[in-house]
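step=encode ok
step=design start
structure_in=
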């Protein structure tokens, strides 16, 4: 299968633009199937002589794609570099877009479209490079890893990693192309997400002493979470290399009550801890739970069946790769950055943590900035895309025989 037709009126030196246009045209929102995008991608790779494998979710409507460009000596399993990205994007529902989010639009020095920053541009640029990598012959394998459901908890990549381990692949390193402004990121925070449910006791709202108001008690709990966050902001501990140098505590959703004249029986609070290596989420959760426990005696004095339950909804580990590791040095070289001042750490989570947990030294480096992700009119500058292409071409110089 040939490359997609070039996008009109665009600087022709940005060779990845037609690939980005094609990937963005697939509305691969996490709630929907990503198979049309994978079908196109696999057909393109098959046309270049590259075979692919998939791992599916339980529904069969989503999948990961794994493809290996072999070394010139035929090696495929050992010592390769993984170029990794996710194919899903966040929804556009309710967002005030000025253009069609699933059609690339270029205005001035910016490209607009859902996923142009997070993170289809990196995967598309990797695909653009495949013919050159094959022509120049690789000293060691290059793997393409495209996952599903990253945006809803890094779900798909877990099956992908398990599958490649079962097949005996042992990559020497991985580059995850999340948006870092092409800075070399060697660490990100971990995340623990919780749902805390307050179980109250219903009564008529005119008889408030006879009820246990789950909404009001949930608000007390949320206020305590905010006080925990303020303490971290004021006193740390701090790691100044992070974009947000302290651990954070955040409440995302609160839901409860049925009508104004009914004392609410239940209220749910969904909240998270994003922590760096100087804090443990377990200790912060224990603090929050102890506060909740302190409210229970007064609740149960009104109704014995009241109280709190806490559920750990998801865990994404943090990761850290040594700045002097082979994969980090390779990325510093390709990005033309000085490790003394070009290293970064970020607060948002990525699939890098799961590759690292599986024993693959991993770096995060990709075009665009997280501040432009998940927004209406998501954009990336053409300059960032050009930097990403230059990064990929320097990577080819270091990985190829010719």
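sequence_out=
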């Amino acid at each position: 299968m040939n490359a997609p037709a070039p996008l009109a009126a665009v600087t022709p030196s940005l060779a990845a633009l037609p690939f980005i246009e094609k990937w963005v045209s697939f509305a691969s929102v996490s709630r929907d199937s990503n198979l049309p995008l994978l079908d196109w991608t696999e057909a393109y790779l098959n046309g270049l002589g590259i075979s692919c494998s998939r791992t599916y979710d339980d529904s069969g409507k989503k999948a990961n794609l794994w493809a290996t460009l072999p070394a010139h000596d035929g090696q495929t399993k050992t010592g390769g570099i993984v170029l990794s990205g996710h194919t899903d994007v966040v929804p556009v529902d309710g967002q005030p877009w000025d253009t069609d989010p699933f059609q690339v639009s270029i205005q001035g020095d910016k490209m607009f479209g859902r996923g142009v920053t997070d993170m289809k541009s990196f995967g598309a640029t990797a695909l653009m490079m495949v013919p050159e990598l094959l022509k120049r012959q690789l000293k060691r394998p290059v793997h393409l890893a495209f996952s599903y459901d990253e945006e809803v908890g890094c779900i798909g990549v877990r099956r992908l990693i398990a599958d490649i381990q079962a097949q005996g692949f042992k990559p020497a390193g991985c580059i995850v192309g999340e948006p870092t402004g092409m800075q070399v990121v060697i660490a990100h925070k971990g995340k623990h997400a919780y749902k805390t449910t307050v179980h109250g006791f219903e009564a008529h709202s005119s008889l408030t002493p006879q009820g246990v108001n789950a909404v009001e008690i949930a608000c007390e709990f949320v206020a305590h979470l905010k006080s925990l966050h303020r303490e971290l902001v004021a006193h740390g501990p701090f790691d100044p290399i992070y974009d947000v140098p302290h651990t954070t505590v955040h409440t995302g959703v609160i839901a409860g009550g049925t009508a104004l004249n009914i004392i609410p029986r239940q209220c749910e609070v969904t909240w998270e801890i994003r922590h760096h290596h100087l804090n443990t989420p377990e200790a912060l959760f224990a603090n929050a739970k102890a506060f909740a426990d302190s409210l229970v005696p007064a609740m149960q004095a009104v109704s014995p069946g009241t109280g709190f339950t806490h559920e750990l909804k998801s865990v994404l580990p943090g990761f850290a790769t040594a700045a002097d590791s082979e994969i980090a040095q390779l990325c510093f070289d390709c990005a033309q950055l000085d490790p003394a001042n070009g290293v970064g750490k970020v607060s948002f989570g990525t699939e890098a943590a799961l590759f690292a947990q599986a024993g693959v030294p991993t770096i995060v480096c990709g075009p665009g900035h997280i501040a432009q992700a998940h927004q209406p009119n998501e954009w990336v500058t053409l300059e960032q895309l050009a930097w990403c292409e230059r990064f990929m071409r320097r990577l080819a110089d270091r990985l190829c025989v010719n």
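step=design ok
step=annotate ok -> Residues 1-12 have pLDDT under 50 and may be disordered.
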